[in-house]
Amino acid sequence: MACICGNNGHGKSAVIDAITWALWGEGRKASIEKKPDEGLLKIGKTEMMVEFTFDMEGDRYRVIRQYSKSGKTAKTILEFEVFSSEKGEFTNLTQKNMSQTQEKIIEHLRMGYETFINSSVILQGRADEFAIKKASERKQLLCDILGLSKYDELSMLAREKYKESNIRMEFVEEEKNRLEKELLEKENVEERLKNIKDDLQNLNKEIDNTEKELIVMREKKSTLSAIMNQIEGIEKQIVREESSIKDMKKQKIQLQEEMKLTEKILQEEEVILKNHNLYEELIKQDALMYEKNKKITSLKQKKMSTESKINQGKNELSSEINVIKEKINSIKVQLKETLKVIDLKEDIEDGFNKLKALENQEKEIEKKFKLQKNLEDLRIKLEKSISEKEGGLKIELATLHKREEEYDIQILKKENIIKQIETLKEEINHMETLEKEKERVILKGTEEQSKTTRMKEQIKEIEKKLEEERQKWMNISKSKDSNCPLCDAPFDEKRKKQTLGKIKKEGEAKKEEINRLVKEIETSKKETHSIKEEYKRLEGEIKKLHPKKSILAQKQVELENCNKASLLKEEIKAKMQKINKILEEKHYAGEEIKKQKEIEEKLILLDYSEEKVQNIKGEKEKWDKYRQEKIKLDIATENRDKLSLELPLLENTLKEKEEILTKEEFSLEFKKELQEITRELEELNFSQEEHNTIRDQLKKLNKIPTQMVYLNNAKKQYPLMVEKHKGLSDNLKEKEDLLITLINEKEHKTLLIEELPSLCEIIPQKESLLYGLRLRANDLTGEKGNLENMFEEHKKVEEILKKFEKEFEEKGKDREIYRILSKAFGKDGIQSLIIQNCIPEIETAANDILSRLTDNRIHIALELQRDKKSGGLKDTLDIKISDESGTRDYELYSGGEAFRTNFSLRVALAKLMARRSGTKLRTLIIDEGFGTQDSEGIEQLVEALQEISKDFDKILVITHMESLKNMFPTRIEVTKSPTYGSVFKVIG
Fold first, then answer.
1. Max intra-chain CA distance, the chain
2. Which fold has domain 2-147+828-987?
């Protein structure tokens, strides 16, 4: 137990504000403000932060809430952590966004802000927080303290299950009605199936008879068709025979003409043989003359070719002589030029040596140039690397700057997103209200349906009784006996009339009752229709609002992204500062800069000059001509000896060639061959005139070979022709006899097929009839299959119907169970019983404290029900205060008495919270309120606190009263410094 004391305005109550703002984001605020943030922020400051560490149920937790404001934009950051003894540090419990983190904190605390300030905390000037609330609000707060929301959830779950069962029952009932309608066709299907089976049996018998008749007709047709085919074959054979006879007669006439020609050729045999012998002799002579002519032509061509080769040899020899002469003259000129070059040998060698020395100098300078170029290339690479690294950092800096701008844009959207989220939450709350209304409508509709069903059953029962009364009336009115037909009692006319009148009166009363029930059913139907319309309207509105949940989730993600953007922006700023520092100090390319300096030093030591290079090149150009002069000198020295040896040899060769040409000793072999050809031409004895005479005679006898062929053929063919002529005459006679036989056979068979046309007409008719019968049988078979399938389907439907009937019964039981559970878990069920059980506990605890504070003068009573003006009882939670004067209204008590009453009631609620709600929050905080008490009242309050301290782990009393400070074992003194603000010191 401790006292937080200090002067007014020094920040004592700020401790409670810090706790409630850290845990729930709530605290003291003006009535026009939605949130306390602006009011809690110190004037002139733009940010605040509370870090609150607390122990609960053996675990240590830490909550950090930060608030900052920049212009019109405000930002809140919330962190939630739990201490891990294994790691020795706090581990994160913070969720994706602030609202989820807040829910996580409430989940661990198991209470909200309102519950806290109405139970564990008595705020300054708000000790009557619980007492002045409406009865319904007090009851709800008590529910929160007792943790009865879980029963609301169970009740809601039971209502959902009730609704699901109801929907399923409606579906099952519809399916049952549909299946029952389907089963109405079952008897018709069975009867139709029996008829089809009978029709199919008769039809199959008719098909068998028709098929047998058709087989007989087809066999007879087949036989007659075969005879018809035979007649056709005979007709074709007659045509063939007539054609054959005609052809044979033509052959006979043609053969007779050929025999006449052959006889004529045989008569000229002697003349043909004589001319044939002369013709063969002339052929031999012509062949001999042809061979001689061919040989002469060949020798003449050979002679011309040989003469051409002799002339070609002479020309080639002359050409060789001219070539040798030209070569000798060229060698003489070359020798002259070579000697001129050799005379300048000393000057050329001196110039060439000078050129070589300059080239060596140039090579040395080229080596230096290559080394310098390599160093320059390396320096350029290093400069490029430095530039790239610098450029990379600048690009990264630009990218980070762009991302910073993007985050700024995202942060600016935050306020608008928060407004959108609030709007969406309102719409979702409205949707939940509509869903509750829809459940109420469903329940009302179910009750109306049950009511209608009950009234229909009542009508059936009344109609049944009415029918019984009518039968009684008929029996009595028709009876002529002196005894009653119903009870066998004596029955005169007067009694009969009385009985009939009584039955009639009762019947009319029952009819009126039926009419009344019918009207009520109609009214109920209208009400049900109205309920359905209302259900459709609510369903439509809920369907329109349903997407809002997903939109809200999306907006919450966007809000979380905005929160993350603030953190990421700070990270980006840090990165940008780091990169700017690297760029300023050039820490990004230390190695490259070092190498760059080394290269600069090497270039200075290299001593390469472009002027030296140009001087050497200029000097080299002056002496460069001696390179070619040296080559000419070397060639001249080499050629001088070679040409001196070659010249005498060429001169001797020229002399020998000229001597051969003068003596004409060239082409000797060809000249000998020409003499031989001339001799052969002279020896051949050929006359062209004689050859022409032989050819003229052959032309005159050119038909003799053909006549000889005809003669030989005639000798061979004539005996055969005679024999063939005899054979043709015999065959012609046979053919003419066969033709007569065939004509007679055709006439006989034609008489046999006279019945075939009528068969060809009847068979298609029978086939058509059979086809029709088979089609009908197929149709009936198909229909039979369909009906059998339908019959089987009806069996399956009966099984399904049984399942649906069973399910309907089970779902009905489930629905009733869920209805009972919904009511049991509701406000008027278990929750009401728990509240009823805890009310005596609150009353006892409050009255224990109050009796100590008021010397047993004042007592509190909590009433859960009050009388209605219209009669009956109404649920409530009223506070009744009584003293020695009787029961009075709360407002009529003095400030001190009211405070003691409120104090007792609030402490009782705090004790209940500590023991029963499951929150395990064993803390009580009292902020001021003792100013209304006299010294005796203050002492009694302190004693009461000491008495109840065993029920709490901590009791903190905040006061500015000096008289109260020393009554507590521990003091926490709060003072306000103009420099540092509020500071505290623990004493005791």
1. 197
2. Rossmann fold (3.40.50)
